[in-house]
Amino acid sequence: MWSQELYKEFIEDAERCCVHALQHDQADISGLVSLNAKLGRMRLLSSPTGVEGAGEIERKIVDTYLAPPKGFLELREVINSRPVDLLREFSAACRAELESIRAQ
Questions:
Q1: Is 26 helix (H, G, I), strand (E, B) or coil?
Q2: Cα–Cα–Cα angle for 70, 85, 8, nearest 5°?
Q3: pLDDT tops 70 at residue 82
Q4: How far is CA 78 from CA 22, 26, 73, 85, 94, in A?
Q5: Cα-trace Rg, the chain
Q6: For the purposes of burial, counting CB atoms within 10 Å of the CB of 21, is it exposed (0-12), middle (13-18) or buried (19 or more)?
Q7: Contacts with 43 (C-beta within 8 Å, 6 or more apart), sequence order
Q8: Mean pLDDT to the nearest integer, 71-93
Q9: C or N: which end of the chain has fewer Cβ atoms within 10 Å?
Q10: Closest CA to 37 of 3, 57, 10, 67
Q11: Contact, 65 vs 21, CB < 8 A?
């Protein structure tokens, strides 16, 4: 299923970019370009809710680069105390969309 693979790839890229952003102050431009390309494909193929969620994730990742880099211990604290999973809402929207497609 095209959308399932696209969402999987976006989630994997977003996680890589997020961890990189937490550890570095210099952006991974190629990673962000890849993420943005997948967002562009979603604009053609996905629901507005999914596109909005993906765009929000991309903005949060870019904002994360503007914060000071985290060392390994700080990274552990961020992961353990993160109040909201970066991908939770997006994943739920994708799941709902895929279930809707399957039901048709």
A1: coil
A2: 105
A3: no
A4: 9, 19, 9, 11, 25
A5: 14
A6: buried
A7: 51
A8: 79
A9: C
A10: 10
A11: yes
Tokens of 32: 């962000």
Q: Cβ of 94: how many Cβ atoms within 10 Å? A: 25
Query: Residues 5-17: pLDDT tens digits?
Result: 999 999 999 999 9
Distance of CA 12 to the CA centre of its chain: 8
Is-contact 18 4, C-beta < 8 A? Answer: no
Q: Where are the alpha helices (DSSP H) in 1-104?
A: 2-23, 29-45, 48-65, 72-81, 88-103
Structure tokens at 41: 């494909």
CA 31 – CA 15 distance, rounded (Å):
10
pTM: 0.83
pLDDT for 47-57, tens place per residue? 888 899 999 99
CA distance 98 to 13: 20
Distance CA 76, CA 46 (A): 34
SS3 24: coil
